[in-house]
Amino acid sequence: MMNRSIARWASSLWLALLLAAALPAHAGTYWNGVSRVPATPTGNRIAVSCHNCYGDTNAQTTAKVELALDRSFDLVELDLTRHSDGNIYVEHGNSADNSRGTLAAALANTALRDSNLMLFLEVKDAYDSANPDKIVLPVLRMIRDNGYAVSGRPAFLRAFYDGRQQHLARAKFLVENSSEFASIRDYVRFHTLVESNVRQNIRNTKNAGFHGVELNYTAASLFGAIGQAKLLGLGVGVYTIPATYGDAFLSAFREDIDFITTDYDLAATAKAYTVRALMQDATSLLYMNTAPQTAYPLTYKRNNATNYSVPAGTAGAPTLEVLSVSSDEDRVGGSMVFNGAQYITTYDVDVGAGEGLLVSAVVNLDDLTSGATGAIVAKSDSGGFALEQSGSVLRFGVYVNGAYTYATTPLSGLNGTDSYWIIGAYDGSGAVRLWVNNVQRTASASITGGVGANGSPILIGADPQGTTSQRFFFSGKIQQVMVQRWHGH
């Protein structure tokens, strides 16, 4: 007879295989039926939230919400606390100052009520098991009575997964079981904000019947957590993208998540590009994400939603490793495995006159010590760009004015266990910049000029030499590659 430990192992394996087979890759369906949310050039729909979209008074909150409307945000984040007077206040921490703006006043704002801007409501107070309804019950009633949470305009209740997620469980129970909330039952969604025990709490979010998770944008192995959430059928987003270089982060994230909270374009003077303009900007040149792909032919996109195929048997093609949705490794789903001899050929495309490039990749590095050059994604043939390992550094370089200029970071600060989300950017005037897990590394000196053109294709996993030869093969795993034309925003 099978012993208990073997039986438990077999049961866990069966469940993991069942989930991997039965749960389709999240394919941009989270915003079905919500017309406000824009699509990127390659077809992903992503909503952008105005971070802390309130002030210290009702008047300041009204002004902040109207700014969000003017600048094309899709969601307004309001943080909620309850004071001893029984009112729900809009503030980041419970100040017990009853002069603060109230949720009732915020939701009564005619401009907000008459729009299709969606509510992103975060409960800040600790959960009180002795009085579990004291926050969520009045919040749900205000959502209902002010005409929010209707078809095409869901409302969101959110809380950190640190005990405060119990507010969401209680609200979910009330919505599903109380007849007084029948009218909004189908239009209230629940999100957890997860910062600790990330993979387990993503599973807990799914098991609780909630709808989405929000992750810190600088989290380690972030792409693996995003992939896990998607494979479990959850919506997934990140917080909080800063104002500084916010355009680069928003553009780098736009193809891979469903919602994003940011401080970008919340200053008194508006940016040249709104958040919606960034999401829709026709800058895409290449986008490949193998996380939802489980077999050849692999596909990638260029400047629209059309899929281009990399067929099985392509010369030099990497193998594909597929990790289960229950995996707690740095990656989930499919990854291309490069052992120093493989590559993917895409196509030849260059930026316009005076333009730069925004390049990203999600990688696991297998060779950190040999000093060999290994190109992650490159078009570096007396022109173009390279995101690569070289000697003791990871670097991103662009060919401007007849030479390559690089931003760098030491490989000694990286490891072969985690996956890294790497972003390189140059907008045609200024420094070449490099971020690893969205933390900026050493930028170059300032330069000016467009990235030079060549006739070579963009390669993944190698450096092109003309149209048919390759060198500088990469050793490691790659899940995502993105290349965009980049210009001043």
Characterization of this structure:
This protein is an alpha/beta fold and 489 residues long. The chain folds into two domains: 25-281, TIM Barrel, CATH 3.20.20; 287-486, Jelly Rolls, CATH 2.60.120.200. Helices cover 20% and strands 31% of the residues. The protein contains ten helices and 29 strands. The protein has helices at 4-22, 58-70, 103-108, 110-113, 136-145, 165-177, 198-207, 222-231, 246-253, 275-280, and strands at residues 47-50, 75-82, 88-90, 118-123, 155-160, 188-194, 212-216, 235-241, 259-262, 284-289, 298-301, 307-310, 319-323, 333-339, 344-345, 356-365, 374-378, 385-390, 393-400, 403-410, 420-426, 429-430, 433-436, 439-440, 447-448, 459-460, 463-465, 469-471, 475-486. The strands form six sheets. It has an eight-stranded parallel beta barrel, surrounded by four helices. Strands 10, 13, 14, 16, 21, 23, 24 and 29 form an eight-stranded antiparallel beta sheet that branches. The protein has a six-stranded antiparallel beta sheet with strand order 15-26-17-18-19-20, with no helix packed on it. Helix 5 links the parallel strand 4 and strand 5 (155-160). The chain is elongated. The relative contact order is 0.11. Mean pLDDT is 94; it is low at 1-26.
